[in-house]
What we know:
The strands form 2 sheets. The protein has an 8-stranded mixed β-sheet, with helices on both faces. Strands 11-10-9-12-13-14 form a 6-stranded parallel β-sheet. The protein has helices at residues 11-19, 32-39, 50-59, 92-104, 121-132, 155-161, 171-182, 194-224, 229-236, 259-266, 272-298, 325-335, 360-365, 377-380, and strands at residues 2-5, 25-28, 63-65, 73-76, 109-113, 141-145, 164-168, 189-192, 307-310, 342-344, 356-357, 369-372, 390-393, 405-407. Helix content is 41%, strand content 13%. The protein is α/β, with parallel strands linked by helices. The N and C termini lie far apart (51 Å). 43% of the residues are buried. It has 2 domains: 2-203, 3-Layer(aba) Sandwich (Rossmann fold); 247-407, Rossmann fold, CATH 3.40.50. The structure holds ligand SAJ. Ligand SAJ binds at residues 116, 148-152, 204-205, 208, 212, 245-246, 248, 251-253, 255-256, 314-315. Ligand SAJ binds next to helix 8.
Amino acid sequence: xxxxxxxxxxxxxxxxxxxxxxxxxxxxxxxxxxxxxxxxxxxxxxxxxxxxxxxxxxxxxxxxxxxxxxxxxxxxxxxxxxxxxxxxxxxxxxxxxxxxxxxxxxxxxxxxxxxxxxxxxxxxxxxxxxxxxxxxxxxxxxxxxxxxxxxxxxxxxxxxxxxxxxxxxxxxxxxxxxxxxxxxxxxxxxxxxxxxxxxxxxxxxxxxxxxxxxxxxxxxxxxxxxxxxxxxxxxxxxxxxxxxxxxxxxxxxxxxxxxxxxxxxxxxxxxxxxxxxxxxxxxxxxxxxxxxxxxxxxxxxxxxxxxxxxxxxxxxxxxxxxxxxxxxxxxxxxxxxxxxxxxxxxxxxxxxxxxxxxxxxxxxxxxxxxxxxxxxxxxxxxxxxxxxxxxxxxxxxxxxxxxxxxxx
Length: 408
Ligand code: SAJ
């Protein structure tokens, strides 16, 4: 039986996948409310195919509890935030979960850390906890790191199809854990050592962050001299070895905007490109504020109460707003004592920020300038509703040449 510890964005779908593919699974989370919701037959976030997967896992007998289980295999999938000042990974949740596991697990159990951690975290934080408990790693407890690669918005599909990495001290243990993942994963599963697995995960997300920063910097250069960044990127990408990403209002989510900082925190003098890329991405919400001001000035608009932000989530068609560029923008605006801008997002039903709307039409009726920060499908399907409005389109969703539309 596998005990999955942490039933968030990664732990829950992973537990459901295994359970619906013949593995006996118990999911544990310290959040009693979350466990109660799952036990009441409801999922805790939206994702294509998640409800169907949940139903299949429940039919297969998955259980949810706040208790750690006595079993031979644990998958730890708890958050790994980073310390905003030191830029280093904060492994406290992983360490706390491992301590709890050690309190109940029998000798010879395997602990799989699935949470994203910076290279060396398992050596520095997890191994000492096990040794301090008087246990011998490789005999009393086995360690594995199995980072995930799924993208929010397409999680269920990617869980099934992505290649994966499993890092283990002992190859035989790695191969045993691989079998659990292979129960559902149709991609290739590479078994390597723990440090390599830690590093590859963070490097993958850093690669994307650096490439988004490149696109964002191009947007600033093009804005400076009145060039069309989208047309330039489109043409450049016709080159067989060029593949530039899209500029945007900033980088959010709990991966691309966080993981590269782990490397900057650990190797400050060796991460010039990475550190500067993160700063470029972090500068984008303020750049959007400057663009709002420029569009208002160009149109003789003086009342910020007639400006509305479309989108609160960190990207399109998900309900996750962690580190979202819109929240970063509102924070930057707040620092200047500005009147909070009006905001609307079809995916955010609870009240998250001041001046938030829950109806698209009511939102549109109250604003003259719509700032598109997220290109949700709802918006793409209803572009005609923006007729007659000024639009600042930071996601390149509006058709070219429409009157009153401005870009980044
Ligand atoms: N973004 C841009 N321009 C782009 C692409 C993205 O501005 O061209 C922005 C998005 O709007 C968003 C942020 O970047 O704010 C991150 O979005 P994303 O879609 O690039 O990535 P995430 O954070 O949803 O998921 C990433 C994925 N990593 C990679 O593609 C390397 C996913 O595969 C990982 O599993 C996930 O991080 C994770 O958990 O680490």
